Amino acid sequence: MDKKLAQKIYHIGLFAGIPAADTDCIIQAVRAVVAGGVCGVILSWNKHLGPTVEQLRKEFAHLVIGIQGPYAHSMKLFASGANFVVDTANAPDKAQVPFLLRKGNDLLDRDTVLAQCSNKMVFVSDMKQNRWGEITARAQQAISQMFGFELRHVGINHPDAAASDKTASTFEALFGWPKEDKGGAYFAGPYIESMKKMFYGTHGHIAVATNSVDRAAWYLEQRGVKFNWKSADYNPDKTLRVVYLQEEIGGFAVHLLQK
To answer: How far is CA 195 from its chain centroid?
Structure first.
């Protein structure tokens, strides 16, 4: 498998399944899901799909386009701008397909592609009724559910451990959030990280938890967000656990945190 493309499929995480339809309907549906933040689509094959893919490629250079269709048409679809083909039938000779996205020497089947993704959306009824706004709203909701962004804690900077202890103790006294020494900071419940030194952020930092820091960071980078990659920390399996945004928001540094 093309490692860069395989990694991109993983980072996208969610593909919109677009059923067979006329070119205008497919284009409108893809525009709607892209407006909702989706970066990958899987189109169902039809004999007029080549020109449709060409048009999509011109309009959405960043979009990863997969085709679910018969092996026999794969070469024409690649020539039109498709990134991968999900073969729906057994190929006669898999070794003779040099441009088909593979895993090892095998064609990617449907389950292999979708196993890279957290979900796949299909919009059959919405497309039939030209409900493009509904498609965009569903796409936005699916993206939101995939990332599951939520405020995890607020970090407050201090010059020393004594000041940190005092702040955490105050939160404990006021709200009953138990104070706990976690080395570099005192925590007051799970909500306040009272730093024992001056750390990232003019005032401190805000932790935003997500289902996948890897995917969330990639997604935000596609929208122009810059990250301080020197701040990155990784899980034992080498997936991203923590990374700070480069710019502060309201005097606070912001970091993504793996749930």
So the answer is: 30
pLDDT of residue 113: 57
Mean pLDDT of the chain: 88
- pLDDT greater than 70 at residue 89: no
Give residue 80's identity as a one-letter amino acid code.
S
H-helix segments, the chain? 3-12, 23-35, 49-59, 74-80, 110-115, 124-128, 132-147, 161-175, 213-222
User: What's the CA gap between 43 and 63, in Å, rounded?
Assistant: 12
- pLDDT of the residue at 61: 93
- By CB atoms closer than 10 A (0-12, 13-18, 19+), residue 168 is buried
Q: Tokens 């990784």 sit at which residue?
A: 234
C-alpha 165/C-alpha 185 separation (Å) is 8
Q: Does domain 150-258 have CATH number 2.60.120.1440?
A: no
CA distances from 104 to 42, 95, 115 (A): 22, 10, 16
Edge to edge, the sheet with strand 14-18 lists 84-87, 64-69, 40-44, 14-18, 119-122
- Does the domain made of 3-145 have the CATH classification 3.20.20.80? no
Q: Is the pLDDT of residue 98 over 50?
A: no
pTM: 0.86
**15 strand-pairing partners:** 120
Any residues with CB less than 8 A from the CB of 191 and at least 6 apart, and which? 153, 154, 171, 177
